[in-house]
Design goal:
With about 325 residues, the chain is mainly α. It is a multi-pass membrane protein.
Amino acid sequence: MSMGSLLKPKINATRLPRVPAAFFGIVLGVIGLGSSWRAASAIRAVPAGIGEALNLVGVAIWLVLVMLYAAKWIADRNAALAEAENSIQCCFIGLAGVATMLVSLALIPYSRVAAILIFAMGAIFTALFALWRTGVLWRGGRDPTTTTAVLFLPTVAGSFVTAIVAGALGYADWGQLAFGAGFFSWLAIESVLLNRLLTAPELAEPLRPTLGIQLAPPAVGSVAYLSVTDHMPDMLVHAMLGYAILQALLLLRMLPWIGKQPFAASYWAFTFGITALSTASLRMVARGDPGPVHMLAPILFVLGNIVVLTIAVGTVLLLARGKLLPAAAPAR
């Protein structure tokens, strides 16, 4: 062995934490709750610092996940490629771009330049990944049992979050284009997913928490619509909010069935939708909506906090017990 090879640093792939792309969903939940607190502090006497703290915690989690996920591609490329080629896990990779755009949203009050740069990176990654993955899906040959709500992530979640951040940065016209892409993708994919749920074999227990993603499109879409418009909340956003509430009630009814899968990080799938539901209702109140959202907003805000706090505590406990991350592959 040469002296150069001895001095050359090596990354031991077996010692790296196995961070799945799905873990970026944690960022969505934390920053989603931070956005909800920001919306609440604009109309209620709640501490604004809580929302800012949650947003900065979300940014810190994103930084850690980006480094660990990038390290996986460098040190164990085979594992990363296997995830990208998996018919279910691959869609979670789109969360990397979505989480990046939400980091931009969190940073807007602190540095507009940084926010724009980070948003551009996240939006470009999201668009390229959505085009790549959707192109693969359009080839057909997919096993219906692998069709789950994760299909929403590349195009629907990506487009709606693009609209939210574009609107927050003052680019509402561009955000409206992104909203359209997300809205019609949602309607198309929704029909495919409902057909699968109604006619194919029931979801395997490990996949059941992915149903939490069902709540996200109408809830996040409501926030996106409000972000790219400035008029009094109209029939469309009321309709989306109503459908989101229906989805939330259905998930509550199915919770015993979903809960047959022991708690895992996959339960973060519930958090982005429930926090967006809260944020949308609060923004509608701030916009002067005279309807029932005045009664619903406080309830949804409390519910969002309870859900995220419960899942966060469960995640910390799993981490402390060493059961949060997938087991490392055996050394060869």
